[in-house]
Specification:
Helices cover about 40% and strands about 15% of the residues. The chain is built from 14 helices and 14 strands. The strands form three sheets. A six-stranded mixed beta sheet has the order 4-1-2-3-5-8, with helices on both faces. It has a four-stranded mixed beta sheet with strand order 7-6-9-10. Strand 11 and strand 12 form a beta hairpin. The radius of gyration is 25 Å and the shape is globular. About 40% of the residues are buried.
Length: about 475
Amino acid sequence: MLQPIIKESSVTSSEAFLAYLCDKTFLSLWSYPNVYTNEGFSKTKTGKELCDLLVVFNNNIFIFSDKDIKFNREAEINVSWERWKKKSICNSIRQLYGAESFIKRYPKRIFVNKECSTPFPIEFDVETANIYLIAVTKNSVEPASEYFGQSDHGCLGTLVQCYNGLSVMQNKPFHISDYHPGKTFVHIFDEHGLQLVMSELDTMHDFVSYLDAKQKYIRDGVVGCIVGEEEFLALYITHKDPMVSVVGAMPLEEPNSIIVEGHWENYQGSFRKELLDAYKKGSESWDDIINYLSQHILSASVGLGADLEFSTHEKAIKYLASENRVSRYFLSKALNEKFHLVPKNVRSARLATSPLYQSNMYIFLFYPKKDEESYEEYREARQNSMHAYAFVAKYKYPKCNNFIVFATEPKGNIFRSEDIIVFEYQEELSFEMRNKARMVMEKDNILNDMTAVKDDSNKGYDVGRNSACPCGSGKKYKKCCL
């Protein structure tokens, strides 16, 4: 039975901003500020805070520690830096490793509120989970800009990162390192660097791919120094194929390469930046659907399906949220185009294979309500039709294993509701089931004349001046975002 989930409020404005950034990127269903353990609860009747923010998605666990420590601008710079680093960075790392250890030992003792009455709702397998430790610092950007402004460094104020053979520089002001190379890597972001990364890579897939690539380059000894987070970010985006998880070959030929300034400035005026912004604009409706459905799940106001567990609802929305930014654009385009084509009283559907996950197929079903039907009868009939469409789609496209059916009323209806159901086929249909699917297809006129939407995502960034703009405006690219 689905129950409302009330998250704990962020304590400080800094924590609130972090929660806002993560809600925007990971969306609200998977990010939980100020989670607690029941350690010592029997004595104090209050849980013990585990971390400032916990995000769990697709068996990826993100543990955030946020420190809002004032930087003393009056004392000598080396003294101020060491004091600030100890409170902001060292204490965060200690908290992160403690939280990681607790989660590994007691994964069932985590709660979203200090009363420990609401268990953490997202399931994960602690034995196989990927754990990301993220320390977020505050108040270093301005003093760092002043400090580097007096040198020939040219840094914009984000922390300088020194690794491997160059880690001897870590004690210099505003220089950080991989402090515990034998343990889980800790990603250290100042507030400016984190905001840049989460603004440019604002889907779970894109963010995870970035963290993985950065950690690999550092721990493999390829990168020795990064003069600012924005410089590695720009270099990463410039050389990353948007439809694969692995990063492309960066122009780093020597071990312990130094990533200098200039990449971010060049990226700001690049065609790649313009096109990515257009993809974001053209896929906003996909984000809106995820957020809308997530809010209904959190508030337990789902209508049909209220008798199902949280994990069942979360699983369905997770397919939509697993798509990266470019994939979301193509899927949004398929959905929106079909919505505007279907007449008010016509049942129709469009199939679109995920550009990112070729075994996943989306079915966008527009199902009209009959005048004589009650709304409850209509929703039940629509859900039955969703089952039939997924069954026939599996028959017609046997190489796909997962069918995500999103159903709503056609354009022009007074009332609107949404249903989403995921059908996962672990095996091929048997001979008997294929015959049955063929009968359903012919009898109920389901996907009889249907062809799947052509996957043109392999065009990547090659959008011509006279092509339709990726933002979805309907104008030519040269007349719009270009």
